[in-house]
Amino acid sequence: MDPDFLSHPAEEVAPELLGSVLTSKTPEGTVSIAVTETEAYSGTADPASHAYRGRTPRNAVMFGPAGRLYVYRSHGLHWCANVVTGTDGLASAVLIRAGRVIEGEDLARKRRGERVESPRLARGPGNLCQALGITAEHNGTDLLTGALVTLSEGEPVPTAHIQVGPRVGVSKAHDWQHRFHLAGDPTVSAYRLSPRAKPPAGA
After folding, report:
1. Matching InterPro entries, A to Z (predicted)?
2. Which pTM does this prediction carry?
3. In CATH, which superfamily holds the domain spanning 3-182?
4. Of 12, 55, 110, 114, which alpha carbon lies 20 to 30 A from 5's?
5. CB count in 10 Å sphere of residue 195
6. Tell me: the pLDDT tens digits for 115-131?
7. Distance in angstroms (rounded) separating the CA atoms of residues 112 and 91
8. From start to end of the chain, where are the E strands?
């Protein structure tokens, strides 16, 4: 993965990450996932971003350098993985929302549940992290040179196969067209509007 590419704004990087491969190596084994869904968050300019109000100990990794893994807990339940992008010092990240397991499916299913169907193993950001075994200990990992979690190029995705839409489950800036996914792919998570989101004017 070209580090210069990741230094671009999140909304530019997010669609280009589709098809890339996120790999996690643990004592249990290796799991690799081809990314099928992403969401861009633009830091202090984005009301839905963790960095909207500035740097804190929790979001410090978001401020760079690009290519690091930002891991946070969602609703106190699930870990979520983000690829830090943009210019060092300016918060920006892409949430990896879903993917297709291409290596280590048996281990991913062991972590997710024996009855979970293949398309659902990494469907949704929390499930994706569970399948990969990503937790808080991976926060700040260098995805380009690290050994435990890495990001690499995969099969190119034609622009015609990429669908763009509003972000999932956030209450602020939920209508921003910053969600990118492979059209018709069964591993992509379902769209869900946050119950706290305000409907568009006139709706």
Report:
1. Formyl_transferase-like_C_sf, MPG, MPG_sf
2. 0.94
3. Methylpurine-DNA glycosylase (MPG) (3.10.300.10)
4. 55
5. 7
6. 999 999 999 999 999 99
7. 31
8. 21-26, 29-41, 69-74, 78-84, 93-103, 149-152, 162-165, 179-182
